[in-house]
Amino acid sequence: MPASGPSPVKSSARSSAPISVFLLDDHEVVRRGVHDLLDAEPDLTVVGEAGASGYVLKQITGTDLVSAVRTVASGQSMLDPGATTRLMARIRGDAPKQEQPPGLPGLTDREREILILVSEGLTNREIGKQLFLAEKTIKNIVSRLFTKLGVERRVQAAVIASRALLPPDRRPPTPTGPPNDAARR
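The structure corresponding to this sequence follows.
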């Protein structure tokens, strides 16, 4: 079989009927691209946009995506290996201790990464460009961060990040008494 053609699969269902695929993504451009990629395969047909029996990350290659669709179509579940490893570690409760630095308990790696960028003064748009994520995705993560940190403003989150991430000798001083009127002005 030529290298550019579809990979051989021993299944009579594949030769008789195309595999139906539903797409789910909140970005129209992504859906269109994936739709075109899958529709280019003779045994795959995109029939709608909803639902999932598998989970892959957006960084997946086209070839791996096509393979994942075929895996799910054969009745198996598909979960990205990296996501599976993190999920199993959480279920077992054996996440490494360094994942929870002091002052930032309960934050994901991605939330910590974005919090650092917020503390550097980057906007959601700038963070999105740097991390190759949509601005809306960054906005949602920042909102979750605010909730987890119990803050309402970026500057409050930045202060928490600087205190939690900087060595003790470089942290800003913590006020020790009630604020006076002169300090508030």
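The mean pLDDT is 75.
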